[in-house]
Design goal:
The complex is a heterodimer of chains A (324) and B (97). Chain A has helices at 25-35, 68-77, 94-100, 105-115, 117-120, 138-145, 159-164, 180-185, 187-207, 211-231, 240-255, 263-282, 293-323, and strands at 16-19, 48-52, 61-65, 82-87, 125-128, 148-151. With 324 residues, chain A is α/β, with parallel strands linked by helices. Chain A has 2 domains: 16-176, Rossmann fold (3-Layer(aba) Sandwich), CATH 3.40.50.11600; 181-323, no CATH class. In chain A, the strands form 2 sheets. Chain A has a 4-stranded mixed β-sheet, sandwiched between helices. A two-stranded parallel sheet of chain A has the order 5-6. In chain A, α9 (187-207) packs antiparallel against α10, α10 crosses α12 and α11 (240-255) packs across α12. The longest helix of chain A is centred in the C-terminal third of the chain and has 31 residues, at 293-323. The chains are: A alpha/beta (324), B alpha+beta (97).
């Protein structure tokens, strides 16, 4: 993000910040860091009105969240001059913030009012990302501010085609995807979140001589955070708990030839590690773009008790063999 | 390949008598669960619904209803621990979805 203070002719009285549509090396670094969960809270953009290029009263207005990746996607995708209205979503991306209501009717109303956009534009109209719709009621924003909300495409990259089509999104632009690349982008954060517990655990197990378990712990971590996203459509079942147990089984099967364990131990380890993989993989529902709350509640009610019993039974088997 | 979640759990309901056919719900649905059929909206495949609530919130006549929420296991666990409705643990300053 770069700024200059020369403003735009005729808008000297408005309080807007200047930005460009360039995507620089620093933006790429910020994106990479965010994916790995490094300094995510430094990813905030100052809320308010931004001038992209040299917008005038006829230029379009786009709403965004004050999360850097949301804002960068928007400012680099809009080709041409525009007003960008950044809502205060506490540094959270558009879709998640909309789910919580921070990207919502009230914040949009407040931002429109405070920006002075009403006096700045020839037409009271604002383009809101479609994924902001769970938090925004277009008809209420209209009633409160007089602004018509037009829902833009799901992905910022489709904005030029959307604008070219007279602010109409083709059906494909209205659909959320969850392809391989989308899923793998979310894998590092899962790896970091669970690696911070499981890697020290694996190191401790190794240190105390449980080398097989150290390896199985690492295999479980990798299968539940890498294989689950990678193989999601092909893992069996619809429930994430089942898909993830299957991914865990692949991990255990891959590690097993390197271990010298008899059948009893292999079964005991399966009972211990598969529910762990299942539990971790279940958390990927939060990253997925298609799971419903009702569905997650249903599978958790069924899966958590099974996971707990399996883990307890597996640990009991391991102890039994050791002390009898 | 289209990913589909559990069958028969989504709570989305459409009251066709109330629908005025404005088409807002069709626009905002990220999974094309709603479509226009003549002058009314229609639910295509309710199992594709992720209960984000965009359609119901943008329906000017409250023809759509559902139990809105985020399909996130961590949120459900946070809700259980705090004794509240499922909630992202993010809020002020934390990590989020």
């Amino acid at each position: 993000m770069t700024g200059n203070d020369d403003g735009t002719a005729g808008q000297e009285e408005s309080v807007s910040f200047a930005v460009t549509g360039e995507y620089r090396a620093a933006d790429r670094r910020a994106s990479w860091k965010a994916r790995w969960g490094i300094g995510r809270m430094k990813m905030r953009i100052k809320p308010g009105l931004y001038a992209l290029g040299s917008p005038d009263p006829d230029s379009p207005v786009f709403a965004s969240a004050n999360y850097r990746l949301s804002f960068d996607a928007l400012r680099t995708s809009v080709k041409g001059d525009a007003w960008l209205l950044v809502l205060d979503t506490k540094g959270i991306n558009v879709w998640c913030a909309a789910g919580k209501g921070t990207f919502g009717t009230m914040e949009l109303t407040r931002s429109i009012m405070e920006s002075g956009l009403g006096d700045l534009l020839s037409r009271k109209e604002i383009i809101v990302p479609q994924l902001g719709a769970p938090g925004v009621a277009a008809h209420r924003v209209k009633a409160y501010t007089g602004f018509s909300v037009i829902y833009g495409p799901v992905r910022a990259e489709d904005i030029p085609s959307f604008m070219a089509a007279g602010k109409k999104a083709a059906p494909e632009m209205r659909r959320v995807r969850f392809g391989f690349a989308d899923r793998m982008a979310l894998s590092p954060i899962e790896l970091v979140n669970f690696g911070k517990y499981l890697l020290p655990a694996a190191a401790l197990l190794y240190f105390f001589g449980f080398r097989a378990d150290a390896m199985l712990t690492a295999a479980t971590l990798l299968s539940s955070t890498l294989l689950v996203p990678a193989l999601l459509p092909w893992l069996p079942g619809r429930a994430f708990a089942i898909k993830s147990a299957a991914a865990g089984a692949i991990g255990l099967a891959a590690a097993y030839p390197f271990l010298s364990q008899d059948l009893f131990h292999a079964c005991a380890r399966a009972l211990v590690y598969l529910p762990v993989a299942s539990f971790i993989g279940l958390q990927f529902t939060g990253s997925s773009t298609y799971t419903s709350l009702s569905g997650v509640m249903k599978e958790m009610r069924a899966a958590l008790p099974v996971q707990g019993v399996s883990l307890a039974a597996g640990l009991a088997m391991v102890l039994l063999r050791r002390f009898i | 390949m289209s990913l589909k979640y559990l069958k028969g759990v989504a709570t989305l309901k459409l009251d066709e008598a109330k629908c005025i056919g404005c088409g807002m719900c069709v626009q905002v649905c990220p999974h094309a669960v709603l479509e226009m059929s003549g002058r009314k909206a229609r639910i295509t495949d309710v199992d594709m619904c992720m209960e984000c609530g965009a359609c119901a919130g943008n329906c000017p006549v409250e023809a759509l209803s559902l139990k809105k929420g985020v399909g996130c296991a961590a949120a459900v666990i946070t809700g259980l621990i705090k004794g509240t409705e499922p909630a992202c643990g993010c809020g002020e300053g934390g990590d989020c979805c």
